[in-house]
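Protocol step 4 of 5: obtain the predicted structure for the target chain.
Materials: sequence only (see below). No template structures provided, no constraints applied. The aim of this step is simply to have a reference model before the mutagenesis design in step 5. Sequence pasted as it appears in the construct record:
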Amino acid sequence: MALADTFAISGGDHSRWSNVLYFASAAAFVGAVVLPIVFAFRNRRVTHGLRPVD
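Step 4 output (structure tokens):
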């Protein structure tokens, strides 16, 4: 996401907004890791075994 890679210029980031792009990338990474785990725990079903028949 660095401007140096995008526009083939030397040096680091030349934009004040580069931190916003890095934050968006970090948030997307965290979401990609955390959301599947949350959905897996939310959708699992707990079985307590068989109920006795009266």
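Step 4 remarks: The mean pLDDT is 78. Residues 18-43 form the longest helix (26 residues).
Proceed to step 5.
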